[in-house]
Amino acid sequence: MAQSFGRDAVIVGAVRTPVGKGKGSGALHGVHPADLLAHSLRTLVDRAGIDPALVDDVITGAVTQADEQAFNIARTALLAAGYPESVPGTTVDRQCGSSQQAIHFAAQGVMSGAYDVVVASGIESMGRVPMGSNVRPGFDPRGHDFVARYPDGLVGQGHSAELISAEWGFSRTQLDEFAVRSHEKATTATKEGRFATELAPIAGLETDENIRPGSGVETLAGLKPAYYDEAVGRRFPQIEWNITAGNASPLSDGSAAVLITTSEVAAKLGLTPLARIHSVAVIGSDPLYMLTGVIPATKKVLERAGLTIADIDLFEVNEAFSPVVLAWARDTGADLAKTNVNGGAIAIGHPLGASGARIMTTMVNALEQTGGRYALQTMCEAGGLANATIIERI
């Protein structure tokens, strides 16, 4: 992202709710999605100590924009948060990368001069608004020309994860071992209070609800394949059916919000920049394997930044499924020891539209704690898409 306008984009605040289980028994199930997002929006400006009237726009990522998450939830939530009626809001959908894309749009806006202060945020209440509920039965959003281009048909994300696992040759044990490490890291981070400054507790939930302390490979080995399909198996006989609920991210509820401005405006407002948004990229990739886009997205953002993989101190790669991160690490040469150091989505959870902002909040916090300079975040997204962002600690 070239800074051709002479303005930079800095993060001066980042908060998230604890991530709840996306089911009826989850701690956040009783919270309306607009109120769940409003909590992060309100906490963000309260902690920054700024007048919300200064916010030029609220850009929110949300994937399933139906029912309680419909009708431009960005606007509904900002009003619920007590922002002045003069503050606008818009809701964007780039699938799992929706709120990472919101961060990109916000950064581009302040760098261009279109904004001085903007909030990038994300929301998903998967327990109250299930995936796919924005498509009515009997309707196909793809259209005839799309189907004609892919006459053999595509597959769901779980099957794409199976294809990746088979293509890269990962065993069930490797996938489960990666998942166990995610829980171990998230458990340690929680116990040591590493998430404390980024969390905004709500509805009595103080910490992330999905983390399973003491989770072991032996336990995960007993889980059945989550996406077994006889027809898919006939089409792709190489699939070994290794993806389970244990090595995939769980259904989740949560919200997050990031405050973005320029260094100059931050100084005027007395705000301390936490990190500079150094470079951003977005790519399209094979929609059949759809989750591998993180690999070219990483390469593209590094090229734009003029950096190498060795220059990056921390990585955050969304753990939609274990093989996504493992394939990414193998192909990019990234160090897994520097990746998702406080655990990832397999343990913390993946509240779709909120995950980009949630991960950015965690990454900014981790970069400060470790004293590193550069961190890189990337997300695989349905349909064969991926976003990548590099930030620099100030």
Automatic annotation (TrEMBL):
<dbReference type="InterPro" id="IPR020617">
    <property type="entry name" value="Thiolase_C"/>
</dbReference>
<feature type="active site" description="Acyl-thioester intermediate">
    <location>
        <position position="96"/>
    </location>
</feature>
<dbReference type="InterPro" id="IPR016039">
    <property type="entry name" value="Thiolase-like"/>
</dbReference>
<comment type="similarity">
    <text>Belongs to the thiolase-like superfamily. Thiolase family.</text>
</comment>
<dbReference type="InterPro" id="IPR020616">
    <property type="entry name" value="Thiolase_N"/>
</dbReference>
<feature type="active site" description="Proton acceptor">
    <location>
        <position position="380"/>
    </location>
</feature>
<dbReference type="Pfam" id="PF00108">
    <property type="entry name" value="Thiolase_N"/>
</dbReference>
<dbReference type="InterPro" id="IPR002155">
    <property type="entry name" value="Thiolase"/>
</dbReference>
<feature type="domain" description="Thiolase N-terminal">
    <location>
        <begin position="10"/>
        <end position="263"/>
    </location>
</feature>
<keyword id="KW-0808">Transferase</keyword>
<keyword id="KW-0012">Acyltransferase</keyword>
<protein>
    <submittedName>
        <fullName>Acetyl-CoA acetyltransferase</fullName>
    </submittedName>
</protein>
<feature type="active site" description="Proton acceptor">
    <location>
        <position position="350"/>
    </location>
</feature>
<dbReference type="InterPro" id="IPR020613">
    <property type="entry name" value="Thiolase_CS"/>
</dbReference>
<dbReference type="Pfam" id="PF02803">
    <property type="entry name" value="Thiolase_C"/>
</dbReference>
<dbReference type="GO" id="GO:0016747">
    <property type="term" value="F:acyltransferase activity, transferring groups other than amino-acyl groups"/>
</dbReference>
<feature type="domain" description="Thiolase C-terminal">
    <location>
        <begin position="271"/>
        <end position="393"/>
    </location>
</feature>
